[in-house]
Amino acid sequence: AQEAHEAIRPTDITRNPDKIKDSLSADQFKLYRMIWQRTIAGQMIAATIDQVRADISDSKRTAVFKATGSSIRDPGFLRAYQEGIEGTEVNDTQESYLPQLKVDQPCPLIAVKTKQHFTEPPARYSEASLIKALEEHGIGRPSTWTNIISTIINRQYAELDNKRFKPTDVGRVVNKFLTTYFEHYVDYEFTAQLEDALDAVSRGESEYKPLLEKFWVPFSKRLINIDETVQRKDVTEEKTDETCPECSNHKLVIKLGRNGRFYGCSGYPDCKYTRAFAETEADKEEAKAAQTVVEGRKCPKCEADLVIKEGRYGKFIGCSKYPECKFIESLNKPEDTGVTCPSCTKGSLLKRRARRGNFFYSCSKYPKCKYIVSHQPLNEPCTSCNYPITMLKVTKTKGEQIVCPECQHTRNKEA
After folding, report:
1. Are 344 and 365 in contact (CB under 8 A)?
2. Which of 189, 210, 232 is the last residue of a domain?
């Protein structure tokens, strides 16, 4: 059995979730109810489920049709907790009944229907199925599985799409690098064996120094060799047979940028040609024709139409006369809050989006003025220190509050 931390459980099992519901927030109640129900279920007997299968065939058994059914004889721990069932919901999909049948009972043929099925790839991992796979391969332990999943998401190796892990371009590159140059160390058996060896050390059955030496000596040599021989482009770039349409001297390669993969000239930086990934010449002409014209505005340099384009760093506004005119500007202009910057008193605070997706507010005179606040600024002076602005801070636990960015004086927002 894999070692883990002590189970999370109620300090007093008599504290029924429904009795203390009024003292908890909605999220706290759901969490406590799950912990309480699983604790109770862990002390109950297993469920007893009867399963039956019926085989129906012709007399020569040239075709056999199978049907299965199940019924719960004793629900056991299922009375207290069922995985994926919220609160007092009833899971009526656990049982599937078959009609009353007898051995050798004649079954009249009503109709024959054929349905074609195509082989499909395995379903992508969900958090639950990934943890199950980690457990089956002996990788990690209950106390580390959550951290493994957090690392996958935080480092953007994968993203959740309909609760399923979908690999990102970064994840594919990292996977390619590890499976190409560290294939032994990412092997399931190696990881599981190392876990067992570390457990043996923790039990006092073996010494840690020989184990570390056995691992580190060949691993460090491999690190040095890869560092000296492998370049970044060996992993992040893919060669193509297409000639660069701009310089005609080099082939195009598929590169990895901050917004994913794109085509670029292998002669960079001498040639800076790029285009969106998987875009053929026909697609390029179609995309050019489908570019959205920015209404009510003209290029400030040449008076041509401005259009919305898409490049390696996302969408932007550019001149329709490119490459003759190379005017560009950001598509998402920062929203002006109308609040005067309290630092320079010349600019106003603009709402901007950070790389992580959260918003912040900074002076329009940046970089001359670097004033910044993390919450929505208000044209209301602080009632404590008379600072010219305050902020609207919103949290789940305390709701809307007025906070001074200077003295941190806080008060609830009046309804």
Report:
1. yes
2. 232
Please provide the DSSP assignment of 377-406 as one string. EES---TTT--S-EEEEEETTTEEEEE-TT
Say if 149 falls within a structural domain.
Answer: yes
Residue predicted with more confidence, 326 or 299 = 299
Bridge partners of 52? 69
Question: Do residues 339 and 348 lie in contact, with contact meaning Cβ atoms separated by under 8 Å?
Answer: yes
Which residues does residue 328 pair with via DSSP β-bridges, in sequence order? 318
What share of the chain has pLDDT > 90, as a percent? Answer: 32
Q: pLDDT: is 104 or 386 the higher one?
A: 386
Q: Check whether residue 306 and residue 373 sit in a common domain.
A: no
Enumerate long-range contacts of 280-286, CB under 8 Å, 24 or more apart.
281/245
Q: What is the pTM of this model?
A: 0.46
Contact (CB, 8 A) for 365 and 349? no
393 burial level (CB within 10 Å; 0-12, 13-18, 19+): middle
Interhelix angle 208-229/188-202, rounded to 10 degrees, is: 150
* 76 in any annotated domain: no
Among 215, 232, 249, identify where a domain stops.
232
Over 80: is that where the pLDDT of 137 sits?
yes
Q: Domain of 199?
A: 127-232
Most confidently modeled range among 118-127, 347-356, 404-413: 404-413
307 is a domain residue: yes
Query: How large is the angle between the packed helices 127-136 and 142-154, nearest 10 degrees?
Result: 130
Q: Are residues 329 and 340 in the same domain?
A: no
- Confidence at 396, pLDDT banded by 50, 70, 90: confident
In a domain, 305, yes or no: yes
